[in-house]
Amino acid sequence: MKSILAILLLCALVPGASHAAETKRRPNVVLIISDDQGWGDYGFMGHPQIETPHLDQLAARSLTFQRGYSPVPLCRSSLASIATGLYPRQHGVTGNDPALPKASGMGQRANPEYAPYYESIIGGFAKQPNLVRDLTKSGYLALQTGKWWEGDPVATAGFTHSMTSGKGPAGRHGDAGLEIGRKGLDPVFRFIEQAGDKPWFVWYAPMLPHSPHTPPADLLKKYLKLAPTEAVARYWASVEWFDNTCGELLGYLDKKGLRDNTVIIFTTDNGYIQDPKQANRFAPRSKQTSYEGGVRTPIMISWPGKIQARIDQEHLASNLDLWPTLAGLLGTQVPKGLPGINLANEKSVEARKRIFGEQYNHDIADVKEPTRSMESRWVIEGWWKLIVPEGLKKAGGRTELYDLRNDPWEKKDLAEAEPARVEALRRLLAE
């Protein structure tokens, strides 16, 4: 009783003491975002050759949704959706680069003539509420590492620390931040050590297994014996390389005794299928498409002692759910109107019947009207998936319907055989 009274007296006499004690109890957060990885390219997802022991272990300790999805199959748009909890048509970042009058490329971002195009996209993103700013406003320190397209992460998203500067040609998608993982994780470890008693958030989005597929020699040698071609071997080896970096990060948390008080979320920005003949090149029906190879990804949420670990093979999850899920776990508020749900809420997960997504051209046709670049939209209800051509592809495209339970790689289009189902799903998209 005396100890309780002493604490209450301390809180009354020392300004902010109660807030400090509350802050110290709040969990840390790690968001791991794989870059260009196929939904089946994990050991726990059943790949027969690729080994991902560290992510397999994370999956075993997480609420793991095997039917997770990105609402868009392109990295910049996807990362913006993860941060804001919004569809690209809502946050405006519908492509990687604006369509420019002259040949585009990384150097164009530094060209003063084209600066307004880029600034318009970044400015629109910066006006949106996002999960990073939500955390830092409540007392978290936040570190950005890896992929980042929206200029200075501190200015545009509310990070307190960042590897990326967002300046010059290399600032297009991450500059110095792209060294994380490929050149170790020391910046992450230093940040955590310097955070002290404050809760912290780490955005770990390495450019892995994304090309260039330049894995360590031992991993390449291993997969050259297993893969059908060298191009595939380089990609498979890069997947295990990424897994090793995740193991280094998770091992650090274990070593420092931080794991039990850290929420870990895992997802992928978009899917990927390696072209078997051309290295560093994706195959058809992969990224930049609405097929499963472009939008599907496992999603994991781990918080030992707080979230029951299990593998969910049935229910649908989306990257739009990450902010609402994190807010639910931390007890914070999110803006009204976000389309996502709290994946840790079993009733919400079971009540969900469908999810949606959209796909755009790599380049934004008009920064003032970003949805002009739309090429298709899709909806999944239960195990049925409808892909509808829109905008740029509407004239030459066709509506496609797939039974994902029996045809997960979408080899048999059932649109002609199921006209009533096509119409019902099309109405859902229209609504």
Quick structural gist:
The chain has 15 helices and 15 strands. The chain has helices at 2-13, 17-25, 53-60, 75-84, 88-91, 115-126, 131-137, 153-157, 186-195, 217-224, 230-255, 292-295, 322-330, 346-351, 419-430, and strands at residues 28-34, 63-69, 97-98, 141-146, 161-162, 200-205, 262-268, 296-302, 310-312, 317-318, 354-360, 363-364, 374-381, 384-389, 400-403.
Structural write-up:
With 431 residues, this protein is of the alpha/beta class. The chain has one domain: Alkaline Phosphatase, subunit A, CATH 3.40.720.10. The protein is 33% helix and 18% strand. It has helices at residues 2-13, 17-25, 53-60, 75-84, 88-91, 115-126, 131-137, 153-157, 186-195, 217-224, 230-255, 292-295, 322-330, 346-351, 419-430, and strands at 28-34, 63-69, 97-98, 141-146, 161-162, 200-205, 262-268, 296-302, 310-312, 317-318, 354-360, 363-364, 374-381, 384-389, 400-403. The strands form 3 sheets. Strands 1, 2, 4, 5, 6, 7, 8, 9 and 10 form a 9-stranded mixed sheet that branches. It has a 4-stranded antiparallel sheet with strand order 11-13-14-15, with helices on one face. The protein has a two-stranded parallel sheet with strand order 3-12. β4 (141-146), α8 (153-157) and β5 form a beta-alpha-beta unit. Mean pLDDT is 92; it is low at 1-23.
